[in-house]
Write a structure and sequence with these properties.
- Keywords: Signal.
- It holds the Pfam family SLT_2.
- InterPro entries: Lysozyme-like_dom_sf, Lytic_transglycosylase_MltB, MltB-like, SLT_2.
- The chain is α+β, with helices and mostly antiparallel strands.
- The protein contains 15 helices and seven strands.
- The strands form two sheets. The chain has a five-stranded antiparallel β-sheet with strand order 4-6-7-3-5.
- Strand 6 and strand 7 form a beta hairpin.
- The relative contact order is 0.13.
Length: 322
């Protein structure tokens, strides 16, 4: 019996995190990083019940009538107008470089973090360990993001891994990028050899624009337009926002455009529950691109409407000063 005691006391601390040994082995194999350092890093991560609670009540569970009120406030619109005006030269330079309308770059920051004011206070390492190793419903996704976080080189992060803060889901910076998005779409726009999505505005704006561009943003393309169904409109089951029907086909099924649209344009149809009943929208490629950022159609519509309000506000200010 006594011979077993030294072995028991020698059990590594990382055994407390389920699956950690395998994770460390994979990261060390793929990157050459020191397993001891990786285990020490993960030893400092804590399972957070508040993170598990938060992921069980996402804002996207609300109907559109309530969801819209979160993001289309006058305060958020006015702050977006001010942000656009204050950083206009940089925004328009990056917008032209990537072919993305600047107001949509601003709107992403507005919806995600209120233009950088609320980037999240959870430790990113805690969030991804909690969801990747203790949350079975989405463990595969979050474990992959945790692995990516551990594999990212230092010059692609805003600071040491154990100091990073973000959302309960492990998203970081003004644009709330997950580790795989930092890896795949992060841009060193200021040319300092470091991608900093927390402190470098050029990096932040260019990374959001690059994300849109790499997902197929159509320069000058529409995002959404209202549709008016008739009494005999064909009920449609829409699984996602992928454009799959022409406007002409949707019109034949009983959904009339409220404005002039190209009959041959490829679109989808979204129905959202507004304050006064169902709202029907033709949605296009750029709407689909926004849903690559967050798959909720309500998210994409909130970004679209906030962007439009910001653009109108900037244009209105210009007209008033002429």
């Amino acid at each position: 019996m006594f011979a077993l005691l030294p072995m028991a006391f020698a059990m590594p601390a990382w055994a407390d995190h389920p699956g950690q040994a395998q994770l460390v082995q994979e990261v060390a194999r793929d990157t050459g990083k020191d397993p001891g350092a990786l285990n020490a890093l993960l030893n400092g991560a804590t399972r957070q019940q508040s993170i598990l609670d938060a992921i069980s009540r996402p804002a996207e569970a609300k109907p559109w009538s309530q969801y819209r009120q979160i993001f289309l406030t006058q305060g958020r619109i006015d702050a977006g107008i001010d942000f656009y005006r204050d950083h206009r030269a940089l925004l328009e330079k990056i917008g032209a470089q990537y072919g993305v309308a600047p107001e949509y770059i601003v709107a992403i920051l507005g919806v995600e973090t209120f233009y950088g004011r609320n980037t999240g206070k959870y430790k990113v390492l805690d969030a991804l360990v909690t969801l990747g190793l203790y949350y079975p419903p989405r463990a595969a996704f979050f474990r992959s993001e945790l692995k990516t976080l551990l594999e990212l080189p230092d010059n692609r992060l805003a600071g040491p891994v154990d100091t990073l803060t973000g959302s309960y889901a492990g998203a970081q910076g003004w644009g709330q990028f997950m580790p795989s998005s930092i890896r795949d779409f992060g841009v060193d726009e200021d040319g300092d050899g470091h991608i900093d999505l927390q402190n470098s505005l050029p990096d932040i704006l260019a990374s959001v624009a690059n994300y849109f561009a790499k997902h197929g943003w159509v320069t000058g393309g529409m995002v959404a337009a209202p549709a008016q169904p008739d009494a005999a409109a064909k009920p449609l089951t829409v699984k996602d926002s992928t454009p799959q029907w022409t406007i002409e086909q949707l019109e034949a099924w009983g959904y009339a455009p409220v404005q002039h649209l190209d009959p041959g344009a490829s679109s989808s149809l979204q129905t959202l529950q507004g304050l006064n009943g169902p709202e029907h929208w033709f949605t296009f490629q750029n709407f689909y691109v926004i849903t690559r950022y967050n798959r909720s159609p309500m998210y994409a519509m909130a970004v679209n409407q906030l962007a439009q309000a910001i653009a109108q506000g900037v244009s209105g200010q210009e007209s008033a000063t002429q």
